[in-house]
Structures are given as C-alpha cells and as structure tokens.
Amino acid sequence: MNGLESRRTSTRSILWTALIVLVVLYAFPFVYMLFTSFKTPIETNAIPPTILPSTWTVQNYITALSTQGVPQSFLNSLQTAVISTLISLVLAVPAAYAVTRYRTRLGRVFILLALIMRMVPAIVVGTPLIVIFHNLGLSDTSLALAIAQTTISLPLSIWLMASFFEAVPDELEESARVDGCSRLGALWWVVLPITRGGVAVAAIFAFLASWNDFIFALLLTSVRAVTTPLQIANFQSQFGLDWGTMTSLAVLYSVPVIVLAIVLQRHIVAGLTLGAVKG
Amino acid sequence: MTASTPERPATRPAAPGTRPIPTSGRKRIRLTDRRFAALLMLPAALFLAVFVALPLLQFVFNSFFRYNPIAGSPHTFVGFGNYVRAFTSAEFGNSALRTVVYTVMVVTFEFVLGLTVALLFSGLGNRSRIFRTIFLYPLMIAPIVAGLLWRFLLIDNSGIVNQLLYEAHLISSPNQIQWLSDPNIALFSVALPDIWLTTSFISLVLFAGLQNVPGEILEAARIDGARYPTLLFRIILPLLRPVIAVALIVRGVDAARAFDTIVVQTNGGPQNSTNVLSLLVYNTQIANGNPGLASAMGTIYLIAMMGIAIIAVLTIWRPGSDH
User: B204, A272: Cβ pair inside 8 Å?
Assistant: First the structure.
C-alpha cells in the first residue's frame, strides 16, 4: 500500500500513535507479570497495586525453583516437547510428501480426515487415553504425554509440510529419479534439503503445542512426568494466592519460547500465515 | 511410536515375500506410486487411528453406559439414557449456549482488533517491523499462564486493571467492576486472555493477506476518488474474504474448545456463568464421576463441532485438491 506514503504527515502520525498505544496495551500484561515477579510478597498483594517494584528482589525465583518438583518439571517439559516434536516430524514428513507428490484419492481423504481430527477437543480423547496408556504400561510417562500432545500437532504438521512440499516443482524430483535416486532417496536427498525451512516451521509449532499444553498433562501425569504448566497452576491452589512465586515461574517458563519466537520470527510468521493465505 | 515401516519399502518388494510372482518372474515386484504413497501415509494414519480414532470410539461407546470409576461400580448398559439426560438437563443447554456466545464473542473481538492492527501495520509499511515482533509474543505464551495472569490483572480490589481504570477516572472506585465474580460479565472477562493471546494470529494472517492485495487496484480506486471506508469495505475486505474465512474458522474451532484459560480463572463459576461445554464435560467426568453422562455430552458437542468444521473445510479449504 504505497499510496499512503504520499499522504499528509498528520495521518501518518495518527497511525503511529494508534499503533504505539495498541502495542503498549498489548505488551502491558506480560511486562506487569515480569515486574510482579520481582516484587516482595507484601507488595504483590498491596492495595492499591503498584506497577514497578519498590524494591527489586529475586526471592520469588529462588522460592519457585526450590519448590519440590519444579526443576524436574522443567526437564519433563523439555523432554516431552522434544519427543513430541520428533514423533510429529517423523510421521508428518512422509505422509505430507505422499499427499502432495502423488495426489491420490486416498491422500485427499487422508489429509481431510487428519484436519478433521485436529478439531477433536482434547478432553474427548484425553480420558480414554488414560486407560489406553495404562494398558500399555505407560501411565505417568513423558512418552505417553508426548504421544497425546502429538495428536494435536500432527495434523497441523502434515498440513504445513504439505504446503511446503507443494512449492517444490515435480521436475526436481523427477530428474533425481532419472539420475538413479529411489523415491525415498529423492525425498531425503533432494526435496527435504530444499524444504528445511518448512521442517523448521513444523518443528516449532509441534514444540510449542507440547510446551504449552495443559489439559493432557492434567489428565495423563501424576508424579513422575508432571510438566511445568501443572506446577504453575498448582501454585494458586496449594498456597492460596501466591502470585509472586506463580508469576516468577510463569516468566521462567515463557522466556525461552519468547526468545525462540524472536530468533525464529520469520519461520513462525511463515507457518502462521502459509496455510491461510494460500487457501 | 516410531515410523519404522516407511523407511525401506522403496527398495523392497511390497508383499512380504510369500506370494509367488506369476508371469514376469524376473525381478522384484515394482511398488506402484499409488501403493508407495499409501505406505508413506501409513505410519501417520496408524498413529491417528490408535491415538485419536480409537479413544474417540471408546468415548462414544462409554456414552451408552452408566458407571462410576471411583466407586468401581459395574458398567450398566443404558442405551440412549445418557443422551436423554444430557438433552433434558438445563445445565447442558445453558453450557452449549455459553459456548456459542463465548466463541462468537472471542472471534468478533479478535477479528475487529486483528483487522485494525493489520491495517495499521500495512499502512505504516516496513517501519512497523519491530511492532510486528512485539505482537508475536503472546502467541508463544501458554494459555494456562495467560489465564492465571489475567486472573491476577482482574482481581476485584487489588487488580491493576481496575486500579488503572480508577486512576483514569473511568470508574469511581477500584472495585467497581467485579470482572470475575459478577455472573453477568464473567463470560466476557474469561475471554480476555484468549483474545489477548490470539488476536496476533488474526493480525498476522490478515497482514500477510493484505500484502497480496494488488497496489494498482487501490491506486486506481483512489484516483477515482474513493474514500478510505469505501476502499476498505468495497475492495480490501472482499479481496481478503478467503483469508478471513480460514482465520475465523481456525480461531472459532479453538475458541469452542477453550479450557485452560477458563478453568484457572473461574473453573466455571460464579454461578456457572462461565461453565462452557469443555468444562462441563470435564467436571461431569472427573469431579462428579459420571463418565457415561460426560461422554454423551461430549459426543453431542463433538458432533456439532465436527458438522460445522466439515462443512467449513469442504467449502473453503479443499485441502489436497489440484486447485
């Protein structure tokens, strides 16, 4: 929309003001959470509330991290997210490739069904999964939790990878085949290197789906495999309204993915907008 | 679960070696492209069958029985009894209505806000880049964290939102608005973290869509003397229609399933005013120990959502088609 460049500067300054106001409002909740996590317990519950801490303290962080189970929960979250991302990619890449490269009727039915499964609420599959994992001897394990979370990310991964594969010209794969590559070889040696960015996008979204999941963790873990979102939620029920500790743990849990978002911004925006804009 | 099956088949016979090769006899059976494609899809299909379709069937199956897992009572087949109970209970109807109101509210707010931000980004061009980064961050935050954070922001007497509104002279006392304890507005209040988290999604999708609106069309309309509202409603929005549709469907489905943000803010209260279907199913199942009834409610909820989703997918997305 280059036309706006020539508009009067007053219009531009109104637009800028509106944008800055919106962005400040948008950023405020997290910034407030950040400030709260550095307040003393008394100040956290002060009436009226303050915005900036009058004295800065890291006491909340020490309390949060020395709470039993919290450090382990971080390891569990990370481990679960990594397993879930791997399962999601290993299953999604060949499936999406088959759907886009061979365009069979079966493939169309498959991707449609996968997308419909994306709409199933976690609460519906979650409770029967408790029994299924119990029978498999996987109760309260990171693997079981990762599998459950993959039911959310897999359809999305398939959809994302299918969109990326669609952009690869068929001729590329065909010439690799002429050169003696097997069909799987062509996928592995020719197509995947081109779509590395797409794999990264699918990986990020699978990782986030697992890292931020709450409901499957609530249903499927009890002691050993508990992830941090459960620990964060526990702070409010166990210790009344312990906002200081809760916010510090929430900050610790959110910062890695926010940093990830800033570093990988390009990929994330691509992933978010790809399917929709192509549609 | 690992994908052990698809790694090899390209170089090996399709049938596991038992069937004799009748005519050609000279070499391995060639795997047709169609079979190869099916084999590549097999692991993902199996995974979805075992961990989504099977639990789903189990869930629907449960809806025909009455039992209590905590008391260890036996399964009693009750036919459609649980469905009759679900349909005749006022709570189910009310929850369904709340779910619809919640979904429409979330999607409407997100669309209006998201479109405004997308138009601002687009109008300001490349210099808005840093703001786009800031706008991205709520998408990374866990819904559970967002729910707790907003609960903290909205606490009646010591919440910062009321305090700021009070200092801005918009309300006369810092506890005038009982965000989460007034049943009349609680459903709106619990929607705030959801709106905060995912308006960015709508903005970014619409912004990407706006990049594809040809500048010449806008220029031509402007030369013809079209004012901005005309431009927006007559040209930009109609061109964005497919993008808008997809964004709204994705968000609508997610909002209809909202659980994390609501459960930590109000757990359905006050006076059930935020008890949407996902919470009702969960609490009927876990807290009230009536999985049969919960499954019947969940099945109805699922069928309604699936119906809407399938219609939407078939008419708008047409995934995997040849365009």
Answer: yes
> What residues in A contact B285, CB-CB < 8 Å?
123, 127
Q: Radius of gyration over alpha carbons of chain B, in Å?
A: 26
Do the chains contact at A215 and B242, CB–CB below 8 Å?
no
Whether A243 has a pLDDT exceeding 50, the answer reads: yes
Of B38, B132, B144, which has the smallest distance from its Cβ to A229's Cβ?
B144
ipTM confidence:
0.87
On the question of pLDDT at B125 being above 80, the answer is no
Closest by alpha carbon to A156, among A272, A77, A278, A279? A272
Task: From chain A, pick out residues whose CB is under 8 angstroms from the CB of B208.
Answer: 269, 273, 276-277
- Does this model's pTM top 0.80? yes
C-alpha span between A255 and B175 (Å, rounded)? 32
* Domain assignments of chain B as residue spans, ordered by start: 1-44, 89-285
The CATH-assigned architecture of domain B89-285 is: Orthogonal Bundle (1.10)
* CATH number for region A68-278: 1.10.3720.10
Domain boundaries along the sequence of chain A = 2-61, 68-278
Q: How far apart are CA A33 and CA B303, in angstroms?
A: 39
pLDDT of residue B19: 46
